[in-house]
Write a structure and sequence with these properties.
By secondary structure, this protein is mainly α. The chain has helices at residues 15-28, 34-51, 57-72, 81-98, 104-124. The protein has five helices and no strands.
């Protein structure tokens, strides 16, 4: 499913429409964790940016810009331990590489929500 998340938005598609589409695709991801698919799309976008010729706003938009916005706006808890750990890994990388990143809070919140839910489930068992 992560492969189905497209990095580039067509020129006629507004940013909000593309964000909605990416969020819908992530939510429909079956058999895994939507945050992992979103993180994979972001990492693929960063890799594309690092090999792109330009460093302008258009290059950002075509590569990692939209997946970054999806993660920045993320409000769902991670669904799996792997998703929570991947969110924490990316949060640490972002802080280490960028300093204060807009992704850190939503990623850590998603991971914390997973572990808190998992902790409450363990207490009820």
């Amino acid at each position: 499913m992560a492969e189905a998340l497209r990095i580039c938005a067509p020129h006629e598609t507004s940013l909000m429409e593309k964000l909605g589409q990416l969020n819908s695709e992530a939510l429909e991801y079956v058999g895994g964790d939507p945050i992992r698919a979103a993180i994979k799309a972001y990492r693929a976008g960063l890799a594309a940016y690092n090999t792109a010729a330009g460093e302008d706003d258009e290059t950002v938009r075509r590569t990692y810009g939209i997946p970054h916005q999806v993660l920045e706006d993320w409000t769902l808890p991670a669904q799996t331990k792997e998703g929570a750990l991947e969110a924490l890994r990316l949060a640490v990388e972002e802080e280490r590489d960028c300093g204060a990143s807009y992704l850190t809070l939503p990623l850590m919140t998603a991971a914390l929500a997973y572990f808190e839910k998992d902790s409450k489930r363990g207490l009820q068992a």
